[in-house]
Amino acid sequence: MPGELESPAAVAEASVELRILVEAFSDAAERALSSGDFSGVTSSDLERVITAAVKLYAAKSEVDEALAAPISAERATPTEVVVVVSEMLRAVNLNVFDLAMWYRRPR
User: What's the rounded Cα separation, in Å, for the pair 72 and 65?
Assistant: First the structure.
């Protein structure tokens, strides 16, 4: 049940499971990108993955003092980032002025 304390063994097992899933997802995404075949990629799957990643990053940023960048600048282009960020802002009914207020907040 979410929110319940888990044993260290359960936490370690979840951590290993997450690493395996991240590898599998990253490999599948790279194959789709290199082949140009996105027929097996549904919008709802992307929404679930991006939402989960955003929520996990935001939660981790509240407890980690020095959190790594959310993406690799070597692997994502500025255009790709702007496309995703723009749609994320629209999805939660924010605009660039709202973003500007958050952008300057202390870490």
Answer: 19
